[in-house]
Design goal:
Chain lengths: 102, 165
Amino acid sequence: MNAIGNIVFIVGFLLIIAGCYCLIRTYHMLKIILGIEVAMKAVTLFITYAGYINGNIDLAQSFVITSIVIEVVVAVVAAGIAINLYRKYGSMDIRNLRKLKG
Amino acid sequence: MEAVIYTCLGLMLIFGVMAVMFHSMTKSAIALAAASAALGAIMYETGAIWSALLEISVCSGLVTVIFISAISLSNMDKKELEKVYEDKKRMSLLPVVLILSGAVLVIAALSAGVSLPHADASAKAAGDLREILWNNRQADIWGQIIVMITGAAAVSVLFRESDWK
């Protein structure tokens, strides 16, 4: 049995579960972005390990770079929305998003 | 090499869960940065040097700065966070969920014969990263440029000067 492979599999899934649990249970906008980031870390781990076991680590790196760029842009835009939400309602509660029009 | 990967995997899991569990947003952001640094170390050990560099500099550095900036702009303290969002109560079941899920995954890996393949040392490397990015995955580069321009446009719309007045 491949110990590293199984531990990567277990750690990755636990991180995805932690991130998804955070997405489901919290109302704080920044905490939601944190949950997405934690789940994305697990996805990046899986891509890296897939490249490592295939011997195509350079191809995996190109995918990881793409996912990092997307991750950062998502974090920046979501943080901007969170700050605007705070400026309008005085809190980062996502339940306030329902009050927005348009 | 394996000892470093095992240690970093453990650190990544601990800091990732801490990032979600902490009631202080600043501590959460720092824990996320530490998880990114552990992932960067794993990437370096598996030979993904360029993505390790990007993971540590961008995800561990830039994203943390973005989070800290957002936290300082919102200026919400820990007690208010606990009171308004009931964070402590709502996140209290996470350790139980993780322990149960971990037990199920370990049992599945041990008994059902779930075993991922070994690293194939004889597998041919696809080539230099620059060659792959510019020849094989050129569409990705254009996609990344479009995503970055879209992000910049979104930020400029979100932070229009007229809104600050």
